[in-house]
Design brief:
With 376 residues, the protein is an alpha+beta fold. The chain has 2 domains: 191 residues, D-Maltodextrin-Binding Protein, domain 2, CATH 3.40.190.150; 147 residues, D-Maltodextrin-Binding Protein, domain 2. Helices cover 40% and strands 22% of the residues. The chain contains 13 helices and 17 strands. Strands 2-1-4-3-5-14-6-15 form an 8-stranded mixed sheet, with helices on both faces. It has a 3-stranded antiparallel sheet with strand order 10-7-11, with helices on one face. Strands 8-9 form a two-stranded parallel ribbon. A hairpin with a 2-residue loop joins β16 and β17. α4 crosses α5. The longest helix is centred in the last third of the chain and has 15 residues. The chain is globular, with a radius of gyration of 20 Å.
Length: 376
């Protein structure tokens, strides 16, 4: 399905012309990343660097949102007018599932260094039990809930037991169904990206029905640590945990949480092109113009929140920083929790561990020949 934006004005569903710039969303229309894509595409299309070119969004939904990135990697990345949008679930799958896409094969155009915000109904005490919907990219929420209930000093097995005893993790709900169930109180906790939070959760907070519980912080690409979110000060997981337990979170499960929420959040809304794309500089310039446009900034602040744009090589550096967070112990804990608590088909990918001789190996097709790319 294709949605066309010309000079940032939405038009009827159409087909992609050869000259159109195609943004590949990994989700269907109305889903979190597609909502963000529509906001950004409208502003991106205004950039003088694009000189009035059409910007269109293609929707590529599939199991765990991997179909779009896999399609991009297999074929579409070799088309100079195609830009892949990644979202948080793509980062999580890259770390712990067999996927065809490889961020090391791409150049960052730009991304918003975003966050995910968790909320719960007023009066809900997580120690007495939490009900939360499962979904693509929600692994960090599961880890955070287990640690908030259990505190420090637990083994991974003990956290799994706590989760299985105290958390009702409901599979099979679509995005709109999750929000409706949370609004009705059938789910006691939920999570949302900034655009979803402003549109759907903030009204419940304003009505006194819901409280902002915690968020996961903003990745600092210079240090690899997370900073507080200026839009939700004082609600970072580490701070909320310390306020409850009197100490900061530590241990293997916390390290697993830190690596996987960073992979999810830092590139949850990002634009990528294939390395060597002749239009990369133009697209990056369009991002710079968009991020500095006063009218566009006002739109982003209103609909998404005040979050920084990371453009070009700093986006590539983000991938290197994220790889540095993957240690053997953290990845082992992550895979075990995913399998035994969240019921995910997670696998231990030894090549992902920081410092391994070969961190990523992908078989791809280019110019009709099979080849392997190995990087250190």
């Amino acid at each position: 399905m294709i949605k066309s934006l010309t000079f940032a004005v939405a038009t009827a569903i159409t087909t992609i012309a050869v000259a159109d710039i195609e943004l590949m969303s990994p989700q269907k229309p109305g889903s979190g990343t597609s909502v963000w894509a529509n906001i950004v595409a409208t502003e991106f299309a205004k950039a003088p660097a694009l000189q009035g070119e059409n910007v269109v969004i293609s929707y590529n939904p599939g199991a765990r949102d991997m179909a779009g990135p896999n399609k991009f990697h297999a074929t579409k990345r070799f088309e100079d007018n195609v830009i892949m949008i990644s979202h948080g679930g793509n980062g999580i799958s890259y770390v712990q599932e067999n996927v065809k896409y490889n961020f090391k094969d791409y150049d960052s155009v730009c991304h918003q260094n975003l966050n995910i915000i968790m909320s719960k109904h007023v009066g809900v005490n997580e120690n007495e039990g939490i009900s939360h919907a499962a979904g693509s990219g929600m692994v960090p929420e599961g880890l955070a809930i287990a640690m908030m209930i259990g505190g420090n000093g637990k083994t991974v097995d003990e956290y799994i037991d706590i989760f299985n005893d105290k958390v009702t993790w409901i599979n099979g709900l679509k995005g709109s169904e999750r929000h409706l169930a949370f609004t009705r109180g059938e789910l006691t906790a939920t999570r949302a990206n900034p655009a979803q939070y402003i549109a759907k959760v903030q009204p419940l907070v304003d009505a006194g029905k819901v409280t902002t519980w915690l968020h996961h912080g903003i990745l600092d690409i210079e240090t690899g640590k997370t900073n507080d979110d200026p839009n939700y000060l004082g609600k970072r997981f580490e701070d909320v945990f310390e306020a409850k337990w009197g100490e900061k979170p530590t241990g293997d499960l916390y390290d697993a949480y830190a690596l996987i929420h960073s992979w999810r959040d830092a590139i949850q809304k990002a634009l990528w092109v294939n390395k060597g794309n002749p239009n990369t500089a133009k697209y990056r310039q369009a991002c710079i113009e968009m991020s500095q446009n006063t009218d566009s900034i006002a739109v982003f602040n209103k609909k998404i929140g005040k979050y920084d744009w990371v453009v070009g090589e700093d986006g590539n550096k983000t991938i290197d920083v994220l790889h540095s967070l993957i240690t053997e112990d953290a990845l082992t804990a992550l895979v075990k929790f995913n399998k035994e608590a969240l019921g995910l088909n997670s696998i231990y990918k030894s090549e992902m561990v920081a410092g391994s001789d070969v961190q990523t190996t992908n078989k791809t097709e280019q110019d009709g020949k099979a080849w392997y790319q190995v990087w250190k």
